[in-house]
Amino acid sequence: MGNEAIAYGAIEAGVQVAAAYPGTPSSEVLSTLAGLAREKGFYAEWSVNEKVALEVAAGAAYAGARSLAAMKQVGLNVASDPLMSLAYIGVKGGLVLVVADDPGPHSSQTEQDTRLFARFAKLPVLDPATPREALEMTKYAFDLSEKLLLPVILRPTTRTCHACQDVEIQDGNASLQPISGFQRSPNWVIFPNLSARKHVWLNGQQEVARDSFESSPFNQLTINKQSDVGIIACGVSYNYVMEALQLTGLAASVLKIGTPYPLPAGPVLKLLQHAKKILVIEEQEPVVEDQVIALAWKNRYTTQISGKNDNHSPREGEFNVNKVRSILESFYGRQPEQAATFTAPELPLRTPVLCAGCSHRASFYILKEAARGKDTLFAGDIGCYTLGAMAPLYTTDTCLCMGASVSIAAGLSRVEPHRKQVAFLGDSTFFHSGIPGLINAVHNGANITLIILDNSTTAMTGHQSHPGLNRTAMGPTDRSIDIARMAEACGVEFVRVADPFDLKTAMQVAKEALAFDGPSVVVMQRACVAQMKKGRRRRINPDLCTGCGACVDELGCPAIGKPAGSPEILDNCFGCGFCDQVCPVGAIEEV
Amino acid sequence: MKLDIVISGVGGQGSVLASRALAGAGMGLGLDVRTSEIIGMAQREGSVTSQVRIGEQLFGATIPDHEADILLGFELAETIRALPKLKPGGVIIASSSAIVPVSVQLGISSYDREAMRRYLREQPGKVVLLDLDELAKSAGNIKTGNVIILGALSTLPGLPFEPEQLQQAVLNLIPEKLQNTNKRAFEVGRRAMEVA
């Protein structure tokens, strides 16, 4: 897998400290590193958020260690504050920042293009087309970082991160270079006069990076003397371009770009000399295209340059061979092949749902019931529990970004005091960025109820550790931070812990929390089903069932259906027993 | 040599394991392999598609539309959803059983099994529908549907690997205590093709 290849690349480069916050499609970079950390003799951690991860990596790099931070594109927003300053301060040991982009998007709030962020931060960025290239680029990125004294961004996209390829790895232990140690210097302290000087240096480093990329093997020009068309293909798009050319039989010179910023001039100028028309194929933003246009203008080339700016290719969505093929065909003025029409029977809507036995379902049900008859808004957050927005729970009215639920609820409470504002937050998200919002709500006296859905894991991204657990990325620990006590320490007067599968008690607690004047917190505690043993399966006693359908319509559990008209509990029942308590006539019982 | 296989199913059915086993078998022959999956929100009960490419001189990991040689369907409706990937006349080996999504139970959408089975049987290539639930029960573990379909696949002519090589690639990914169950599941899949 591409993410594993990046991890092995880092190990081969002698990484000494690695830190990350999980997020699809980036998570496997650190989970792979963590799994090998003890054996290979380096340090790996799941940090509470991306800003912290980058700062941990930066600290290690200040002392001369090779370090890596990993996150997804929206995570980079959280880390942007240290990133921008770090570009001015620079590093001593190589620092590679892996930021996985998710064009599509498959599992993200945005489709933002990290290459633009790299340009904004004035940092070089590498864009691997395949897992094999991702491994090579990671090793190269460490060397480049030490040469430039700057962090280097490796920006794979989903189809590199989650693609698998046969990749050769070195099995032995990497030779960890001796760490030179932190040396005191005013150059590590970002005062304005230092920034003013370092900004000039940083701008100069853009040209050094550009020169380094001139001879990079990650940029390859193949001239086709028979064709006056040039295609510039970036990252994974290179694969789509090559396959589309093969399928259509179209001829072109192709410049593969693996170093989108700063773009080296040499290979582009060679292509400009040869081609009469150039088409730039890159996902998301016209990062390379804009640089090619500037380069052509500066060098007085009148070559036609196409791509995003003249609407030949879209700025939204993920590419694939078919999309690239039709972009190519229209560029060459060819009639695209008619796609076969698809007259299948109607297919069911199949969206992801909370698992059978997931305690979040119970928590949402309880809050919905506890708020019945009251005008209540539910602010949601990022995690499995975002699925609370789906039918039939409908308990997520807003969702913005990690940790925002509590502050959004507080903001709403200022202008809609007649409504009760409820915020939901997961345990990992609480540590990630929920705590400042909670402290703010307490300090400013926001009348909100925060429900912390504590399932003792970071479930959505693959069960990574967080500070509330007695394990770290590298193994067990006896240090865990109690969420309820943390909320009390934030100054919340009403803090209760409840088991969402104890409907009666949890409902009572929820009602008290909603009635409390001022910020209140309920920690709904129940481990994630993916990490639990199954309970006793349930069945519906047909003699007692009135067929009211509450178990199906209120819960939306994938283990309760009506295959033959009346409700039935299916094979995938997890045995959580929550439906027993919801059934108004007590018709659900243990098998 | 080029073999493009699409695997479609529902999160939790083991399509990732199946794609890794196919890739492992391909690698054992010294061929280039690529696989691609989208993981994340589709992990649980959502639609999942895996793609496997085995051959020489491969580019990307995703198969263009209408180019896959074989479609392995772990669930009835999801098999149809993935059909645009299959080349005209391509081979389909699929489960005839349904995993009915919550949306159907809630009355938001519908699921017509008979219409779907009929539609699949009308496809131009070789189409084999297996009662995967029953076969998995006979193998002794309801979760072995993925391995049964790989067993069924292994009977097709023209594959680059021998059945034993694919079976070994599967077993390489399976914990010790489940080896026998999965060996059995692979054989159940092979036998099902003799009957089908």
UniProtKB/TrEMBL annotation, chain B:
InterPro entries linked: IorB_Oxidoreductase, Pyrv/ketoisovalerate_OxRed_cat, Pyrv_flavodox_OxRed_cen
Keyword DNA damage set for record: no
Keywords: Oxidoreductase, Pyruvate
Domain Pyruvate/ketoisovalerate oxidoreductase catalytic: 11-190
Gene Ontology MF terms in the entry: oxidoreductase activity, acting on the aldehyde or oxo group of donors
Domain of life: Bacteria
Any Pfam family hit: POR
Protein name per its UniProtKB record: Indolepyruvate oxidoreductase subunit beta
Organism of derivation: Pelotomaculum schinkii
Lineage summary: Bacteria, Bacillati, Bacillota, Clostridia, Eubacteriales
